[in-house]
Task: inverse folding
């Protein structure tokens, strides 16, 4: 067989094979589309989370803007409400001392205890025996004025039978016998209220 005949035989054989297999390529796109047309990919929770956590750049910017705006709104609302509640309900309590006679100072003990039925003060100035406080106007602020000489005094409040040793108006606190007691300095010895 000559080279020309060989080339022609190969060419004819290849063309015949292509013609025989051409039906596979014919309408291939239509067959693929019709086969996958009924299939809808299932999206699981993983796909949802992936879309939420890694959305497009524009969506991320929108999410960040929404979160930021929400934070600003809640902070502003919180500051507004805190300002309204503290300004109208905040009572400034200060201990008052008046110079009495014979080196005695009238020391005012104040305990805010709304809803309490009895409040008393105990301390080393009264032998740890209860001295009752009174709430004459019913506003929950209990007071008692006790004459004390200059010095350092430990005390605590007893509110409805429960020990309350940390007076917010105290000059300091000590921990003794398993309880906290407040400390008040009176006159020149303490240099404070």
Result:
């Amino acid at each position: 067989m000559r080279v020309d005949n060989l080339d022609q035989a190969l060419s004819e054989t290849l063309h015949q094979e292509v013609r025989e297999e051409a039906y596979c390529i014919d309408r291939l796109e239509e067959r693929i589309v019709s086969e996958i047309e009924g299939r809808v990919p299932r999206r699981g929770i993983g796909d949802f989370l992936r879309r939420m956590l890694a959305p497009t750049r524009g969506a991320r910017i929108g999410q960040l803007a929404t979160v930021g705006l929400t934070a600003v709104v809640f902070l502003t609302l919180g500051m507004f409400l805190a300002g309204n509640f503290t300004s109208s309900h905040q009572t400034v309590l200060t201990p008052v001392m008046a110079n009495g006679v014979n080196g005695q100072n009238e020391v005012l003990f104040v305990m805010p205890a709304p809803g309490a039925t009895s409040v008393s003060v105990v301390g080393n100035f009264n032998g740890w025996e209860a001295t009752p406080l009174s709430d004459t106007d019913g506003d929950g602020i209990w007071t008692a004025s006790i004459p004390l000489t200059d010095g350092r005094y430990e005390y605590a409040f007893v509110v409805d039978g429960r020990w309350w040793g940390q007076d917010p108006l105290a000059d300091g606190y000590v921990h003794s016998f398993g309880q906290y007691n407040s400390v008040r300095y009176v006159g020149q010895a303490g240099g404070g209220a």
